[in-house]
Design goal:
Largest sheet: 2 strands, antiparallel
Structural class: alpha+beta
Radius of gyration: 37 Å
Strand order of the largest sheet: 1-2
Helix content: 40-55%
Number of strands: 4
Distance between the termini: 93 Å
Length: 162
């Protein structure tokens, strides 16, 4: 793969003086562009072999595998607090489960049908959770409402300081 002068290529010398290139470094084709250089050295004669040492200079560029995409997270609290969403969800769940449900099937397959129906109803009815893990306390609706009330009272006081 690399162009070298003949003195750098041979790896084995027979007693008559003929030199041959017998030793190679094998690299998977996936990593062949990572090999920068290779050649034979005669400096380590004390190894006890009639072959020369063959070395390769390699530069690896390893990449992190991409993490799997996270599952969609639905706002299940809407079922507790919002009656309209709760009604839509129960209707959607019931309809989908009736399509998938089979009376003669085993309990495991019935459970799988229920899980599929639940997932379908969630995708249709429930909103997705925001991407951030927690909402900031300052953005809670109760705190925003109280802040508006304080601003109103401050304005009222500034108008008439009695």
């Amino acid at each position: 793969m690399f162009q070298k002068r003949p003195g750098k290529l041979w790896t084995f010398e027979v007693p008559k003086g003929n030199r041959y290139q017998l030793d190679y470094i094998l690299v998977n084709s996936k990593w062949k562009n990572s090999v920068l250089n290779s050649m034979a050295y005669s400096s380590l004669a004390s190894v006890g072999s009639d072959h020369r040492i063959v070395t390769a200079k390699v530069r690896l560029s390893l990449r992190v595998t991409k993490a799997p995409t996270p599952e969609k997270r639905y706002d299940w609290r809407q079922l507790r607090y919002n009656q309209e969403v709760r009604d839509k969800f129960s209707i959607e769940l019931r309809n989908r489960f009736n399509e998938l449900h089979d009376e003669s099937s085993s309990a495991t397959s019935q459970y799988d049908a229920f899980v599929k129906a639940k997932d379908h109803a969630a995708t249709v009815v429930l909103p997705l959770l925001p991407k951030c893990r927690q909402r900031k306390h300052a953005n809670y609706p109760s705190i925003v409402e109280k802040r508006k009330r304080v601003d109103q009272l401050t304005n009222k006081y500034n108008i008439s300081k009695s």
